[in-house]
Design a protein that fits this description.
- There is one protein chain.
- This protein is an alpha+beta fold.
- Helix content is 41%, strand content 23%.
- The protein is built from seven helices and seven strands; from the N terminus they run H-E-E-E-E-H-E-H-E-E-H-H-H-H.
- Helix 4 packs parallel to helix 6 and helix 5 packs across helix 6.
- The chain is globular and about 55 Å long.
Length: 202
Amino acid sequence: MDFGDINLMDLTVEGRAALLVGVVERVASPAPLDDETQTGTLQFHVTRVLTPQRWHGPAELELRFTQFSRPDLRARMGAGWNGVDIRSGAHMMVALTDVPARPEAAATHPPLSALAVAELKSQDDPLVRAMQQVLTIEATADTRRRLELIRQGLDSGPEFLSDYCHYALGRLKRVPREDAVAMELSLFQDAARAPQGRLSAE
């Protein structure tokens, strides 16, 4: 199934996909696939490549999508193609594997299946900026600098970036354990002091 609902953060930290930002140019009416699902294709214009080292494809792509036919089921699932408004003019981020770099090969390439897809409000959506920061942290080799970037992400980042930073400190082990523990304790202490500070100010 081409639901495009693989976890976007896992794909990013594992480096398994190219991450592209773009606009849907047109959509072919979906056709029934079975009693519960429908499938179709759309033309996607790539406006920004977030992982240039992993992308060798063209700017114009044909993507295949699969979603539940019933709107209530799509709303209930809310992930991948079920969680986006598939229409002309929609801004999206998609995660894909590489395709042929030669234009003549790409032109005859069958529709691609996105591993993950997320709807954006614009080409400069907070998710795009958060993803760029995640990629920067992942590419940073210096431990001190990585710790600084993670702290910044925890302090002021959107939810996707904040979730990644906790993930990086814990399960991903992107920094030494003692540094990760110290940072998490500091965050906990800051959160505990915050209400007292507000009461004092009042």
